[in-house]
Amino acid sequence: MIEIDGERCIGCGRCVADCVGSNVVVEDGAARVLGRCILCGHCVAVCPAEAVAIPDFDMADVEAAVPASESIDSQALLLAIKSRRSVRDYRACAVEAEALRMMLEAGRYTATAKNAQACRFVVVQEELPELKRLVWDGIDELLAQPAAEKPRWVKLYKLFLRAVQKDSAQDFLFRNAPAVVYVAAERADDAGLAAQNMELVAASLGLGVLYNGYLCRASDELPAVKEFLEVSDRPLQICMLLGYPAVSYPRTAPRKPGDFVVK
């Protein structure tokens, strides 16, 4: 629940004007919370007197926002977006804990529908060999089932399995990435938005990402993998291979003409 410090509140009404649920009023020169809210934190962010708090959240995590006058250079940001590439070859070095922390913070702070904040972020790096074993063993077991009992999705993985069994370096699902990042959420848009912000931070750190739909599907369909990832019954919406690229791209890639409608 929201708490307002009456000693600090100056009754300016900014929280009232910005509250999406109309749950705050100013009475007798101070703001007061009326009832339930979605805990979006706008009242905390907009208050000039630092009078608002959400005790259930980590208030020590609140910091001064970037002023509009010091916002990120738009041309530099656009060029960074145009420069991103799907990375399929990685250097043989681990991703540092601080880089992972910054990526996860970017995901945690991404907006979610109704402020649910219900994404679970899973990073597998130290235990990556175990994840690989569970995925490939699970696919192997399903492909060994009689044709009538075999799930349709797993048939697409037959060639992938043959290749990795013949040569472990020919791993279509994991390639040589040192880490895998999953986002589990009920809503695909929540997970996708979080992943996009995480990738932007990864790129700023010199890391590369490959969105891997094949690995995501297999991981979501195999109970042993979901148990290993500790995502319970939440669907896996996003899977990203992560690491330092072993290839560089000195230019952006061309795209089709934009399909834009501006009215």
Automatic annotation (TrEMBL):
Q: Which InterPro entries match?
A: 4Fe4S_Fe-S-bd (IPR017896), 4Fe4S_Fe_S_CS (IPR017900), Nitroreductase (IPR029479), Nitroreductase-like (IPR000415)
**Superkingdom in the source lineage:** Bacteria
Every copy of the 4Fe-4S ferredoxin-type domain together lies at 1-29, 36-57
SUPFAM superfamilies on file: 4Fe-4S ferredoxins, FMN-dependent nitroreductase-like
State one Pfam family annotation: Fer4_10
Keywords of this entry: Iron, Iron-sulfur, Metal-binding, Oxidoreductase
Family named by the database record: Belongs to the nitroreductase family.
Checking PANTHER family in the record gives: NAD(P)H NITROREDUCTASE YDGI-RELATED (PTHR43673), NADH DEHYDROGENASE_NAD(P)H NITROREDUCTASE XCC3605-RELATED (PTHR43673:SF10)
Name of the protein this chain belongs to: Nitroreductase family protein
Q: Write down the species.
A: Gordonibacter faecis
